[in-house]
């Protein structure tokens, strides 16, 4: 874990309310794994005082393969992200990371489902890219992306560009894809061909349903919890997640997660 002063490389609008930000980072971020996150605060600014958590969307590498930066994908939802959206190339950031528990990777190629809801797509591109680098045949991966409307569907072309062949989309309002939750086509796809693994990140309701479906059909499932964090290092205890084990036992998303086996937690 490092705390560093870094610089913005780019801060581009993706679509209405969504941005991609590239930033410098130390070379040892090469050890970062999909599902891990960073805590970010605008440098030399105390409003808001606390850093904000963001999944690592991808690593930025040189032609020689050296990690030179990271990219985050974020949505403007409050004061902190509103400040981020105004930053320009060269502006300073205070960066803490990489933090948290990452997704586990399969030892061999298999049939993998990747489920994304809204900004929950952020860590899933890094996951898919890492699977490909590990030698997993990602043409067999099926990606499911859901959003409130077509403006909340992100990264579809990114998945296609690295070799994913099947991306299924849904929207709550029917402006793109099927008018339903993304867990609808997920369950139908499981019935058609049971996967070896499900990875998911998105809103709590989506994760809850995905977890239920995975248990119902006996499919291994890892989920990344989206939650607010005050510190990111287990000090504030503000990101408690109830364990499915002993009653009254809790994990903390920042140090025990944000990635959990779906069987281990109650959501």
From TrEMBL:
<feature type="binding site">
    <location>
        <begin position="80"/>
        <end position="81"/>
    </location>
    <ligand>
        <name>FAD</name>
    </ligand>
</feature>
<dbReference type="GO" id="GO:0009055">
    <property type="term" value="F:electron transfer activity"/>
</dbReference>
<keyword id="KW-0408">Iron</keyword>
<comment type="pathway">
    <text>Pyrimidine metabolism; UMP biosynthesis via de novo pathway; orotate from (S)-dihydroorotate (NAD(+) route): step 1/1.</text>
</comment>
<dbReference type="GO" id="GO:0050660">
    <property type="term" value="F:flavin adenine dinucleotide binding"/>
</dbReference>
<keyword id="KW-0479">Metal-binding</keyword>
<dbReference type="InterPro" id="IPR012165">
    <property type="entry name" value="Cyt_c3_hydrogenase_gsu"/>
</dbReference>
<comment type="subunit">
    <text>Heterotetramer of 2 PyrK and 2 PyrD type B subunits.</text>
</comment>
<feature type="binding site">
    <location>
        <begin position="52"/>
        <end position="55"/>
    </location>
    <ligand>
        <name>FAD</name>
    </ligand>
</feature>
<dbReference type="InterPro" id="IPR050353">
    <property type="entry name" value="PyrK_electron_transfer"/>
</dbReference>
<keyword id="KW-0665">Pyrimidine biosynthesis</keyword>
<dbReference type="GO" id="GO:0044205">
    <property type="term" value="P:'de novo' UMP biosynthetic process"/>
</dbReference>
<dbReference type="InterPro" id="IPR019480">
    <property type="entry name" value="Dihydroorotate_DH_Fe-S-bd"/>
</dbReference>
<comment type="similarity">
    <text>Belongs to the PyrK family.</text>
</comment>
<dbReference type="Pfam" id="PF00175">
    <property type="entry name" value="NAD_binding_1"/>
</dbReference>
<dbReference type="InterPro" id="IPR039261">
    <property type="entry name" value="FNR_nucleotide-bd"/>
</dbReference>
<dbReference type="InterPro" id="IPR037117">
    <property type="entry name" value="Dihydroorotate_DH_ele_sf"/>
</dbReference>
<keyword id="KW-0285">Flavoprotein</keyword>
<dbReference type="Pfam" id="PF10418">
    <property type="entry name" value="DHODB_Fe-S_bind"/>
</dbReference>
<dbReference type="GO" id="GO:0016491">
    <property type="term" value="F:oxidoreductase activity"/>
</dbReference>
<feature type="binding site">
    <location>
        <position position="236"/>
    </location>
    <ligand>
        <name>[2Fe-2S] cluster</name>
    </ligand>
</feature>
<keyword id="KW-0813">Transport</keyword>
<keyword id="KW-0249">Electron transport</keyword>
<dbReference type="GO" id="GO:0051537">
    <property type="term" value="F:2 iron, 2 sulfur cluster binding"/>
</dbReference>
<feature type="domain" description="FAD-binding FR-type">
    <location>
        <begin position="1"/>
        <end position="105"/>
    </location>
</feature>
<protein>
    <recommendedName>
        <fullName>Dihydroorotate dehydrogenase B (NAD(+)), electron transfer subunit</fullName>
    </recommendedName>
</protein>
<feature type="binding site">
    <location>
        <position position="231"/>
    </location>
    <ligand>
        <name>[2Fe-2S] cluster</name>
    </ligand>
</feature>
<dbReference type="InterPro" id="IPR001433">
    <property type="entry name" value="OxRdtase_FAD/NAD-bd"/>
</dbReference>
<dbReference type="InterPro" id="IPR017927">
    <property type="entry name" value="FAD-bd_FR_type"/>
</dbReference>
<dbReference type="GO" id="GO:0046872">
    <property type="term" value="F:metal ion binding"/>
</dbReference>
<keyword id="KW-0411">Iron-sulfur</keyword>
<dbReference type="InterPro" id="IPR023455">
    <property type="entry name" value="Dihydroorotate_DHASE_ETsu"/>
</dbReference>
<dbReference type="InterPro" id="IPR017938">
    <property type="entry name" value="Riboflavin_synthase-like_b-brl"/>
</dbReference>
<comment type="function">
    <text>Responsible for channeling the electrons from the oxidation of dihydroorotate from the FMN redox center in the PyrD type B subunit to the ultimate electron acceptor NAD(+).</text>
</comment>
<feature type="binding site">
    <location>
        <position position="254"/>
    </location>
    <ligand>
        <name>[2Fe-2S] cluster</name>
    </ligand>
</feature>
<feature type="binding site">
    <location>
        <position position="239"/>
    </location>
    <ligand>
        <name>[2Fe-2S] cluster</name>
    </ligand>
</feature>
<keyword id="KW-0274">FAD</keyword>
<keyword id="KW-0001">2Fe-2S</keyword>
